[in-house]
Write a structure and sequence with these properties.
The complex is a heterodimer of chains A (142) and B (387). Chain A is mainly beta and 142 residues long. Chain A contains 1 helix and 8 strands. In chain B, the strands form 2 sheets. Chain B has a 9-stranded mixed beta sheet. In chain B, strands 5-6 form a two-stranded antiparallel sheet. In chain B, strand 5 and strand 6 form a beta hairpin. The relative contact order of chain B is 0.19. Classes of the chains: A mainly beta (142), B alpha/beta (387). Strand 4 of chain A pairs antiparallel with strand 5 of chain B.
C-alpha cells in the first residue's frame, strides 16, 4: 500500500520559470531549497517574484534540512478520484517545515491510511524518470 | 448611507436546464439562458447595453452579443474564480447601472462541467491554472477540488474534534430540497443521513455524498436600476449590498500557507462588508444561499458568516432541523450545488431570486432578506438581496 507510480502514464511536469527555477534545479541535485528574501530574511514557499514583506526582488535560495510535521493531509482512496499516473490510495500532505514554511508533497514508504496530523516527517528524493525528480516526505523517528 | 444600497435590482432571470450532457456549446447555452431572462423581464435584445461574463469558460461576450444581435453596448467585462465570481458579477452590474455606465446589463455563466470532463483531458496539456498552482500541486497528484479542499476540511475536523458523520445532515437537507425541484439533478431522489454514512470514501476525508454535482447548464440575470425595475413585469430582487474579498496569501483553493487554514477569512470579510453596507443584522436574514461544493463547507461558513461561534457549526446542523426549509435559518432551499447541481454560485443567486418572487419549489413564507455567499478558500463574493 505504499506510494507507487503507474508506469506508462505521462505525469504532469512542473512548469519551470525564472521565479521557481532555483527550487527545481536544487531538487534535481537532491537538495530541498526554500526561497528567502535577501533583504529582510523572510522565507517563502511557493516561490514568488517579490518579497511580500519588504517588496525587495533579490530573492535567494537556502538549503532546508527537510524536517517537519504533517499539518494536514488527504488520502486519494478511490481509484478514479485521483491522478491517473499514481496508484490509489496515495496521500498528499501539507508539511510544515521546522523553519516555518509549508510545502505540499506526497507521503511515501507507508500506508496512506496511517498518516496523521502532527506526524514527524523528513524529505526524501524520488527520481521519477530521466527528466523528473520530486521531493517526497516519509515518516521519521522523533 | 452606502452609495449602492437598494440602487439596483435583478429584474430578469433565465435558466438553461441542468443536465449531464447538454450537447450544446457553452456559448449556445449562454444565449438560451439570456433569451429566457429577456423574456422573463419583458425586454428585447435592443434594450441590453451591458454584459458581464465569467472569464474562464469557453465563451466570450462578443460571441454571445453577436449571436443575439445585441448592439449599442456601453459596458462589458469579465470576472474570474468560480464562486468568487458569481456574486461579484451581480455586484459589478449593480455598480455599472447605478453609475449610469449602462441601463440593462446581462450577467451570464455557462458551463459544460459534466460532459466536458475537463479533468480527464490530456494531463500534459492541463494549463488552465496559474503556473504556481500547477507546479507545486499537480506533480503530486493534487489535481482536483476534493483533494484541495479536503486539506482544509481535514484540519478543521482535527482542530474542533468533529465527528465527520455530522456533515451528512447537510446532504440530507439539501437533497430533500433538491428532490422537490424539477430543475434538480436529483429531482424526487432524496437521500438520508444513513445513506450518507454508507456512501463510500472517495478522497478522505470526503464521502461520495459530501460532493456537489457537476452539471451542464447556464444561468443569466438582468440587472437594472431600482427605478427601472419598478416599471418591469417581475417583482425585483433589490441588491442591498454586494461584496468581494481576496485576502493576503490567496491561492485558488490551495491557500495552505497562512497561520490558519481553517478560518474562512475572505468569507468573514464578505459578511462584515455586507452587513455594514446593507445596515441589516444577522437577525434580519431570513435564509442563506451559500457555497456547498462539499457538505462540510456549510457549517464552516455558518461560523465565518457569524451565525454561530467558531467550532459550533456542526452543532448548528446536527439533525438538520435548523437549516431545513421549516427551520430557523433555511440553507440552499433549491438544493444548492449538492442537491440541485453546481453552477458555481449562480444557482444560489437564482434561488434567492425565486424565494423573493415566491416562486421557489421549497418556498419559505414571508422571506424578505437573503444572504448569498459563494466561493471559499480563494476569492469569495456575496450579496444581500431583499424583496
Amino acid at each position: 500500500m505504499t506510494f507507487k507510480y503507474i508506469p506508462g502514464i505521462p505525469l504532469v511536469h512542473p512548469v519551470v520559470d525564472r521565479c521557481n527555477r532555483g527550487f527545481w534545479e536544487s531538487i534535481n541535485n537532491h537538495v530541498l531549497s526554500i526561497q528567502r528574501c535577501q533583504t529582510c530574511g523572510l522565507r517563502l514557499h511557493p516561490p514568488r517574484p517579490m518579497c511580500p514583506r519588504c517588496l525587495a526582488t533579490n530573492m535567494g535560495w537556502e538549503p532546508s534540512p527537510g524536517r517537519g510535521v504533517v499539518h494536514t493531509w488527504v488520502n486519494f482512496v478511490y481509484d478514479r478520484a485521483g491522478y491517473p499516473g499514481i496508484k490509489c490510495p496515495y496521500a498528499v500532505a501539507t508539511v510544515e517545515l521546522d523553519e516555518g514554511v509549508r510545502i505540499l508533497s506526497n507521503i511515501v514508504e507507508m500506508d496512506p491510511a496511517d498518516v496523521y496530523i502532527g506526524m514527524p516527517v523528513e524529505a526524501v528524493f524520488t527520481d521519477v524518470n530521466k527528466e523528473l525528480t520530486l521531493v517526497h516526505f516519509k515518516k521519521r523517528d522523533k | 448611507m452606502d452609495f449602492l444600497k437598494d440602487k439596483a435590482a435583478i429584474v430578469g432571470m433565465g435558466i438553461y436546464k441542468f443536465s449531464k450532457d447538454s450537447d450544446l456549446t457553452e456559448t449556445d447555452m449562454a444565449c438560451r439562458s439570456i433569451r429566457s431572462a429577456l423574456d422573463d423581464a419583458g425586454l428585447t435584445p435592443d434594450g441590453i447595453d451591458g454584459i458581464i461574463v465569467y472569464a474562464e469558460e469557453d465563451y466570450d461576450d462578443i460571441d454571445i452579443t453577436r449571436a443575439m444581435g445585441i448592439g449599442n453596448m456601453t459596458y462589458y467585462g469579465d470576472v474570474r474564480w468560480d464562486g468568487g465570481a458569481s456574486c461579484s458579477m451581480v455586484l459589478r452590474a449593480a455598480m455599472a447601472v447605478a453609475s449610469g455606465s449602462a441601463n440593462y446589463i446581462v450577467v451570464v455563466k455557462s458551463v459544460n462541467d459534466a460532459s466536458l470532463k475537463r479533468v480527464k483531458k490530456d494531463w500534459g496539456e492541463l494549463r488552465s491554472w496559474p503556473a504556481a498552482q500547477e507546479t507545486f500541486y499537480n506533480p503530486y497528484g493534487l489535481t482536483s477540488d476534493d483533494g484541495r479542499i479536503g486539506m482544509n476540511v481535514r484540519r478543521y475536523i482535527h482542530e474542533h474534534n468533529i465527528n465527520s458523520d455530522s456533515f451528512g445532515w447537510v446532504t440530507q437537507v439539501l437533497r430533500e430540497n433538491g428532490a422537490k425541484n424539477p430543475n434538480s439533478m436529483f429531482y424526487e431522489k432524496p437521500v438520508s443521513h444513513k445513506d450518507y454514512l454508507e456512501s463510500k470514501i472517495k478522497v478522505e476525508p470526503f464521502r461520495e455524498l459530501d460532493y456537489s454535482c457537476p452539471v451542464d447548464g447556464s444561468i443569466a440575470f438582468i440587472v437594472a436600476t431600482a427605478e427601472k425595475a419598478k416599471r418591469l413585469k417581475r417583482r425585483p430582487a433589490y441588491i442591498m449590498a454586494g461584496a468581494q474579498s481576496m485576502v493576503k496569501g490567496t491561492q485558488f483553493k490551495t491557500s495552505y500557507y497562512k497561520s490558519s487554514i481553517t478560518d474562512l477569512h475572505a468569507t468573514e470579510i464578505v459578511a462584515k462588508t455586507l452587513f455594514e453596507k446593507s445596515g441589516v443584522t444577522h437577525k434580519d436574514i431570513d435564509m442563506l444561499q451559500i457555497e456547498d461544493e462539499f457538505a462540510p463547507l456549510v457549517p464552516m461558513q455558518l461560523e465565518s458568516l457569524g451565525f454561530c461561534e467558531r467550532g459550533k457549526g456542526v452543532d448548528f446542523i446536527e439533525g438538520g432541523d435548523r437549516i431545513s426549509v421549516s427551520g430557523e435559518l433555511p440553507v440552499n432551499t433549491s438544493g444548492g450545488s449538492i442537491g440541485e447541481g453546481n453552477l458555481h454560485g449562480m444557482n444560489h443567486i437564482a434561488e434567492a431570486v425565486n424565494q423573493l418572487r415566491e416562486t421557489s419549489t421549497s418556498q419559505v413564507k414571508d422571506v424578505e432578506k437573503i444572504l448569498v455567499a459563494t466561493g471559499v478558500f480563494g476569492p469569495t463574493s456575496g450579496l444581500i438581496l431583499r424583496r
